[in-house]
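Per-record layout

source: Stenotrophomonas chelatiphaga
name: General secretion pathway protein GspM
length: 252
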Amino acid sequence: MPMQPTPRDRWLALALLLAVLALVYLLLVHPFFTVPWRAIDQDISALQQRQHRVQVQIDQRPEVSARLQQVQQALRERPGFLPEATAEAAAAALSSRVQDVVLSASPGNRGCVVSNRTPMPDNRSEASYTRVALQVRLRCGVDETASVLHALETGNPRLFVENLNMLAQRFQQSTDEAGTGLDVSFELIGYLQPGSVDPGAAAAAGASPGDGDGDGATAMAESAPVADPAPATGQDDATRVPPADAEQIDAE
């Protein structure tokens, strides 16, 4: 007579069946079907998110383009940067600016005159902005010197005076009075607008500002030293006596 299965036997058989099914799933179904499909699902989700971000950027393109044009226009109109597109043109403009300021401070060059203007190369590496520098030397009176420096540093575009050196020389005008003149040298520095020219090209242009460009030729011609004029004393050469003493003044 066959034995009747007890409830315990039924539960044990069910447990064995579930264990076999789980083993089959882990060995055959999960690695060959579940894992690849889950990976594909993750890829689809990532691509959908990327497509959404790209679509948002495409939808914002007109607004971003208009904003970019506004920023570029604001940079072009900003007085802090030099308006010229190249270092050669900027050096020539700085040279003309110095001459105009000196003539404004001393009409007819009676009290102040430019004795030298020399473009300087930009030897900096990995600079954010392209620098245009001019080595300037003046022979001026005290008041004219202050007027020239003030006009250069407070005008537009924004310029900076660095490495300022002054040699104060006293000239005897008569037997009982004396006047003072200054031999002033400094570096006049300005910066081009971002994106006007790369720093490497600016350095090469500053080293040879007269190659193939009319403005650069003007800058080199103006940088040639001229004869030292009479100091800012209001006296003619015939009445001037050689300097009696000199005093070095350095201002940073």
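summary: The longest helix spans residues 7-59. Helices lie at 7-59, 61-77, 87-105, 142-154, 199-207, 214-223.
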